[in-house]
Amino acid sequence: MIIIPKEEAPQGSPEWLALRDRPSASNASKILTSTGKLSAQRGKYLNTLAGQRVSGRIETGYKSASMIEGNEKEADSRLHYELMNNVTITEVSCVFPDENRRYLCSPDGLIMDQETGFETKNAGFDVQINRLKKRRPDPEHWAQVQMGMLTIGWSKWIYRSYCEGLPTLTLTIERDPKYCAALKAELDKFCDELDELTEWLKGL
């Protein structure tokens, strides 16, 4: 794996956004759903990434107040987990699987000595209570951490759902070999199509 340090391209910065003109783990479910089916969003995601590559312009999309709050609460959740579990979580910009850099993941942190990823999601009251009842990640988040494990090559990921004032949901997600194998195959196809579409657009 190739780790891009946080200082080189802080998450959310223009430098970080510029790296995201290729498939990223947070969008894994737009390629292959958690049930192993091709996503209905695949074509739109393909066009979006090709458009970003050719135009040099990043469509960041709308950020709601809850999304902004989630970014702010991420540090609180990470610190809480470190203190409760006596571990050190290393913040990074993103991780590529190899020197080809065809896809990436941008984890909320890496527990290096345990070879474990860390992902935390902020939630409102309703979402948090439902997650606590179900005791499992949302489907798109499950796909996200699976792609994280595929990208990095690790087999374990900590998933947290955090809501200030309510109990925190903390789960250890294991790698699903069957899903990761299917996702790898679809990622290879997707990346090939993305390269072809990019070249076609440049030739117009």
Q: What count of structural domains? A: 1
Backbone shape: globular
Q: Spans of 5+ residues with little confidence (pLDDT < 50)?
A: none
Question: Which CATH architecture?
Answer: Alpha-Beta Complex
Count every helix, treating DSSP H or I runs of 4 or more residues as helices. Answer: 6
Average pLDDT reading: 93
Sketch the major β-sheet.
4 strands, mixed
Q: Termini, distance in Å? A: 35 Å
β-strand percent reads 15-25%
Structural features, described:
- There is one protein chain.
- With 204 residues, the chain is α+β, with helices and mostly antiparallel strands.
- It has a single domain, classed as Lambda Exonuclease, Chain A (Alpha-Beta Complex), CATH 3.90.320.
- It has six helices and six strands; from the N terminus they run E-H-H-H-E-E-E-H-H-E-E-H.
- The strands form two sheets. The protein has a four-stranded mixed sheet. A two-stranded antiparallel sheet has the order 1-2.
- A hairpin with a 6-residue loop joins strand 5 (156-162) and strand 6 (169-174).
- Helix 2 crosses helix 6 and helix 5 (139-152) crosses helix 6.
- It is globular, with a radius of gyration of 17 Å.
- The relative contact order is 0.18.
- The mean pLDDT is 93.
Short description:
The protein has six helices and six strands, in the order βαααβββααββα. By secondary structure, the chain is an alpha+beta fold.
Name a few traits of the molecule.
globular, 204 residues, alpha+beta, single chain
